[in-house]
Design goal:
single chain; 57 residues; mainly alpha; 0% strand
């Protein structure tokens, strides 16, 4: 049983006519809100660990 090789498309030359794909822009407030949220989450987790280790005797 011989298997036939799989034909894969060969990449063609890059066309200079097509502009590069645009990045999806997200609202600035959304980006800031997400970073603030994760910062609060990480700091509160660290504070909780410190509380459990040193103040809960």
């Amino acid at each position: 049983m011989t298997e036939e090789p799989i034909e894969r498309p060969t990449p063609g030359p890059q066309s200079d006519e097509m502009p590069p794909p645009r990045r999806r822009e997200e609202p600035r407030i959304f980006t800031i809100w997400v970073h603030v949220g994760y910062t609060v989450l990480i700091l509160s987790t660290i504070a909780w660990i410190v509380y459990l280790e040193y103040f809960l005797d």
